[in-house]
Structures are given as structure tokens and as C-alpha cells.
Amino acid sequence: MPLSLKFLISICLTIFPVAAAQAQITTPHSYPTGSKDAWELSVHSGYAITTGDIDARAGWGPGLAARKAINHTFSVRAGYTGSFQYGLDYRPRTTPAGSWYVANYRNAMHQGSLDIIASALTAGNYRQNSRTSLYAFAGYGIIIADIDQDVTLSGNPVSPVVFNYNRSRKAIKADLKAMMQGFHTNASIPNGNREGIGRYHNNQLLRHAVRMGAGIAFRLNSRLSLGAEQEFTLPFSDDIDGVNAGSSNDVFSYTSLRLGISSGNRLRKTAPLWWLNLNNYIYQELNVSKHMQLTPPVLPDADGDGITDLFDLEPNTPAGSKVDMRGAAMDTDGDGVPDDRDKEVLTHMMCFPVNSSGQGNCPEPPCCRDLTRGCGYDRPLHHRLCSIDTVPDIFFSKNSFTLTTQTRDQLVNLADQINACPYSIIQITGFAKPSTKAGKLNQKRIDVIIRFLSDKMGISESRLQTGHTSTGNPNKISLKDINRTR
């Protein structure tokens, strides 16, 4: 193999992997490719009238057009409109030769047009695609106008001597219409007018024109739209009504209904761009990104406790330690020693402070500070350590099981004694048969006392026993330490 060929192959093998790697991690373009949108073909028909030197009568006209979007706002439209317009004056005029006539016309007009359309409502921040399109347009038109007259309204029959013009306009025009026999003669245009482009077939006027207008369209479904449009055409000519007599040019007005049909394969082309929100790409990219290369976030966790270092209050917790949601080592009893080193996970607060192993220093119960005095060493251990000698009875009002302030204070004092004597067991007794109404009331009173001692004062329910007897004050609940030293 020649040396130059070997060198070329080695260069290719070196560059290709680098280029391939770059292609995988970079995006060559910052903007999306343009949408391939459909053409819109439309048919229309409407009210056509020419504003000129004589009274106009409305006619009608059909047409068709093809429209293509340039972007979401601007589009271009080419079209054709054919129309008939009519006019009949109510005043007599004279020809240069002195003959009387009443001006009238029928204008068979053909118009080709090319418009630039600007659409509104294409952008929206709080909706997807609009189903309404407002637009305005301006453009160029070329007009072919075949203007014919009814010559019956000329000569002696329409002279002021024969025909009565001293009436209302409506009455005059009604009689003139009755005299008309048809538009069979080309209108004679005075030699003094400006010819514009000229004539077509030496008969029809050919004129340049400027077009402008506005419209509204409503999208019916993915293909059809229905709209209304008003357009004005300025042909720079005063001949469109067959009379060149004024100081201003004639104006053609066309008010139409339009049915639009989007063409093309829906799998390969979108709807015309003026129906699509130009913010769609941005919001779709924000919701489900196809363009941005987002790498998964990496949250450091140096001690491996499951809490990222950004929020970890103790980023160096020993391995295996239980932590709370802030990354701090668990300390159930709040003694300052983490649970993984605490030999007494639930140390009572009365035993604080604790040693380095979490073990508390509990004070000796007051009743047992001197075990050599009156503690009964001949009795079992739980009898001779401590006992509660005086326990007050609890009294309730008739038919009541609510604790008063006084009874609450009594129970608070009792709870302190129970905590001081860990082996004492309190029996709570009501004086009524359980099956009677009074017995049921007493049971509620007993339950209230137990809930207060257990829920409010932290006394274990295993140290509280209940009982009933039928003799005694039914409004009294008796409490006593059944392990009390005798």
C-alpha cells in the first residue's frame, strides 16, 4: 500500500471517533427546523358594490384563493374574484353632442390579486392553539372590467321636458327601471380619462389596483375554517361605473363569506401556521425536552446516610448510625448520647445528666433513703423498698364524671408519689354494682382517672388496677397502694 494512502487512512481513523463522540454530546442547531405546513384553499362569495359617481346597486360575486404561510404571523394569498355590479342615476346628463341620457351600468368584473396577510392571536401564553384568527391584508390587484349600458335611457324620453325629475329619487328610479330593456351596449368612456394599462379586446378596461381589508376566521376542525372578510379595491380609475365625472376615483367593495380547506397529508404537514401557537415548541421543550441535553443531578452524600450533604446537619455520621430526616444521629431520649452508643435508649428525664454511655443517675426515692428504718426486711423486696401510705379519695358531683381543679391537683400529687415508688400499684375502686346505672357512671369516673394518670402524668396503666364494691358512697372513688407496707 502506498505511503500516502496509509497516511490518509490513519488520519481518518483518528478523526472519525472524535467526531462521532462530539456528535453524541452536542446539538448542532439552537433552533428547531421550520414546520412543513399545509396550503389553504378557499372558496368565497358575497356582496359586491362599486362606490362611484352614480347610485350603485349591489351585486354579487364568487371567487377562489390559495394561501401559504410565511411564518406564524405573515402569509401570502393569491386569488381570483368575479363579480357583477349595477348602477342607475336619477339625474339627466347631456352628451357632448347635446343629447340627453341617464347614466347606468352593469359591470362584469374579473380581478386577480396577490395579498400579504398579517394574522393576530397567533401567540398565547395560557392556551394551546387558537380557533379564531383575526387578520388584515394589503396587496396588488389587476382588474378587467366589462362595463355595459342600457341605451334605452337616452334621447327624448329622458329629457327634462318629457320625463318628470321633480320627484323623490325612489320614484324617479322606479320609472327609469320600467323603461330599461337590457345592457347591450358598451359604455362610452370619455377620451379625457386616464387609460391605466389600457383595454382588453378593445372593449374591457384593464386597470392596476391596490387592495386592503380585514377579516375573521373560525376553525371548524383540523381541515375546515369559516370566515367573513371585507375588502376594498382602489383601481386608480373613475371609469368603473361607466362615468368619468367626479374628482375622485371609484372604489370596489366586496363583503364575503369564505370557506377554507387545508390541503396536504396530515402525517407529513401541520395545519397552516396562523392556526398554530408560535409558543408551542418552547412549552413542549420545557415539559418534555427533546433538544436540551440534561444530565441527571448528582447529590453528594459523604457519610452515606441517605441525606445529601446539602441538607445534612451531620455530614460525618458514623457508618450504620440511624439518622433523622436532617441527617443528625437519632437520640430518642434527648440525653445527648446517640442511640447507637446509648446503653439506656429511654432514660427518664429525672435521671439526667447521663454518663458517656447514656446511663442516667436516678435519685433514690424519698421514702427509701434510709433502708434501715421501717422498711421491713422480712417482707418481699417490692414490699420493703417503698410504699404510699396516704392516698386521698376522689369525690365527684352527682351524675358527673368530670375532674375538678381540686381533684386534678390531688392526682398530680399522687402521680409524684407513684413515680417516687416504682413498685407501688394503685387500686381504683368504685362503690356501686357494675351492672347498675351508678356502676356504669362509676366506671366512667374510674376511666377518667386512669386516662389522666396515664396520658397526662405518664403513669403506666400496668400500675393501675380497678375494682368495684356495692357498699359505700356512690360518688366517691377510692385509691390505695396495694403494696403499701403495714
UniProtKB/TrEMBL annotation:
Molecular functions per Gene Ontology: calcium ion binding
Region Disordered, residue ranges: 463-486
Keyword Disulfide bond among UniProt keywords: no
Keywords from the UniProt entry: Signal
Keyword Iron: no
Superkingdom: Bacteria
Database matches in SUPFAM superfamilies: OmpA-like, OMPA-like, TSP type-3 repeat
Signal sequence coordinates: 1-23
Name recorded for this polypeptide: OmpA family protein
